[in-house]
Structures are given as structure tokens and as C-alpha cells.
Amino acid sequence: MTQPTRIRIGGLDAWDVPGQPGGPVVVLLHGFGADANDLLPLHRYMSMPAGTRWVVPDAPLSLGISPLFGGRAWFPIDQEAVQRAAATGSHRDLSGVTPPGLDDAREAVLRLVAELGTSPANVVLAGFSQGAMVATEVALTLPLNVAAMVLFSGTLLHEPIWRRNAQQRSGLRFFQSHGLYDPLLGVHMARRLNTVLNEAGVTGDLLEFPGHHEIPPNVLRGAMAFVNDVFANRPE
After folding, report:
1. CATH at 86
2. How far apart are alpha carbons 182 and 199 in whole angstroms?
3. pTM for this one?
């Protein structure tokens, strides 16, 4: 199996698992408080077409958790609001919010995609939690459709903007998953995101599972089958 190497791409440090020139590419964005090492192992567990390249970047913001744990973020979050929601057993509704720093995160990943050296039609944008939010933002901003989105435990941000942009991405496909008991991002908002995308012509299903803020094996299997189908049917 091809071994990952460290690269600098789009101004971000990333793990790169090389593939064949012109072949499929999976760009995988980690969640808040993690780094690229968190999701890098998925390239070993998810069987993809021969020659698939994986690019797994570190988010640009360091949280300074400790010298041993490189916690990073795509954009800051309101920790007090998260704690208040947790204390009351509720979930925050971010559908009317454009988080500060989201624009910078979007631009960083847009630069990364531009430097991949391949058409967006060969690229699947995937992410977990905050990474899924950034993947959605980027996919709906690019002037051309990526091959697909894979959204693990994401949520709906600035709904009017995503709804408007999604109408320009008709035909884009996505796979979405969310835990029924997710304590951080409520499944009801994942359902709203699914509705917003499908109503705009961005087509995909939401796989709900009896779990929390995580990516369980059945979700990995579903995502793997979805991405293989996307790559099997991508334009030559």
C-alpha cells in the first residue's frame, strides 16, 4: 500500500497518499479539535478504485491543546454556547449563522482543490463535523461541481446562502450520516440540511444511526459504496 507523505498544498500542511495522475481524489477534512491524523487511517479502511489519491489536510488554526496533541480548527466556535446547550440538553441552531472564520477556511480549501492538478469532477470532498461544514461550503462555492460530497455528522450553516448556492450545483451528489443521539450537533438540523440540498437539486440520502458524534462501521461501508459508485460513473 502506498505510504502517506507530508506536503504543503494550498497553504495547508497535509498528508498525501499518492494516486494515479488524472485519477480519483478524496479530500478529507477533520473535525474541530482534531488534526489530519484523526481521519488519515480511513484511507486504509475504505477500499477505493485503484489509483485513488487521498489528501488529508490540517486545519489552519491551532488550538494549542498541548505539545503532544495538535488540536486544530477550521474556524473558531463559541465554547460557552456549546456548554450552555449541553447543560440544557439542547442543540444549537446554526442555520442562520455565518461563523467568523468560515470565509478563511473556505478560501484555504478552495486553494487546495485548485492545486490538486485535476478537474473538480475527479474530486470527492469529505469531512467530519466542522470538516463536513467546510466541505459543504467549498462544494457549493466552486464554479464547477465536484464529483460528490461525503458529510459525516455535519450541520446546516447560513441557510439562505447554502440554499441559493446549491441551486447552482444541481446534479451534485452527496452522502450524509448522523447519529440519532449526537450530543453536539442535533440530528434534526442534519435532516434540515438534507432537505435544503435536495430541494435545490443536490441529491443525496441521510443515513441515521443509533449513535453519537462518530463514524461507525456501517457508515464507513455506506460511504465507501457511495464513493465507489460515484467514481465508477464519473465522466472520462
Report:
1. 3.40.50.1820
2. 25
3. 0.93
